[in-house]
Amino acid sequence: MKRHCWGTILLFVLLSSCANLPSLLAQTNGSSLAPQKMHVCINTACEDAEWVGDHYEGHQNGVVSNRYWLVTWQPDHVELKIRAAKAADGVFPIDGTMTGKIAPNGTSIIGGTFDWTIGPSHSGTLPFTIAWTKTIATGGNGSPGKPAEQVANQADVGDISVYSPARPSTNHPNILLPPGASEKFAEYPDDVRAILQPEYGLTVQESKFHCPVEVGHDADADTALEIARFNYRAGEMLTGHCWLGVAIRKGSTRARVVYAVGLQMGWYGKKDDAKAFGIYKELLATRDPWAIWFLHECYSDGIGTPKDPHQAAILDSWIMTHEDGMNVVRTLGTDDSDQMREKARWDTLLNPPMKSASHCTQDYVTAGGVKVPGRCDTQSVIDKDALQLRLRQIDQQ
After folding, report:
1. pTM
2. Is the pLDDT of residue 108 over 70?
3. Which long-range contacts (CB under 8 A, 24 or more apart) does 248-252 make?
4. Class at the top of the CATH hierarchy for domain 167-337
């Protein structure tokens, strides 16, 4: 667990799930009530969403794809907070805000703007539409249908720390704190911060679940692990330990990796690098990329075991040749502006701006009296002025 340099590694983002961010909201003309069900489209990708008590859940193929928190629902201003149910790039989920106005006919949103982010380094804006119906269906013989079910104007978003935007650390301004994180989180090594980043979208209710698990508040392995991560980031270590135990008992391999990380960090008492190493080695057969990453670090730096460059090289080769291994590497330092700056400088130096340059020779006569005409050759060379400008821009960001 140490600070890692980006070197030549490129951060990529899979925006495909961005095309799957639809949601539905509704209101009757002149009312300030939102609909129970709604239909949302971003570009040509659409989904239906339904109110489930304190938020909307959007579904695709029977699986929750996105969650929407209703902030404001007024004729001249509608605002929703959105989080994708799973990570968009293997690391960070898509977060965003939808804003717009209710159309005069009271059945759609006009001027919809969706401002999205993925982690600390990627963002954009897309248009969206939301539509709904005023009635559920018509009765027999053309008689009026039952009025559409409505929900309150605002959900309880007073304590939505699970969704709150990332913010710079006060004590370590170069570190961006994820939702709900305490200042202590910024002190963790970059790989520890990375494995604790939110991967699945939590509801406000889930983030508040007590542990041991209350009746009716059961959670699957992924949700239990995400609640544990949320509490670890917030510095609520005992609650984090409890939920991590739930995730382990439900069979989560990743939860066992996080447990081993905790052993190295001393979260459960005295640090135990040897026991952590044993867990990483035991999990090698599962091919969990995070287990392989930390096992590689153990062999490379002699953590909990003697240094073994040969084994470290084997694991390094696996990481560099498998996409899920590279996804782990790509997460390191993405919340650290210093490391992102270093990566950007490396990328620029390895792929510098180029320009065309010509080199010409004069006509000349050989010793035998043969006249050789001059020629001009064009080649690409580094544009040093453009390179220095780009490096200055990176340093100023």
Report:
1. 0.61
2. yes
3. 250/220, 250/221, 250/224, 251/221, 252/221, 252/222, 252/224, 252/225
4. mainly alpha
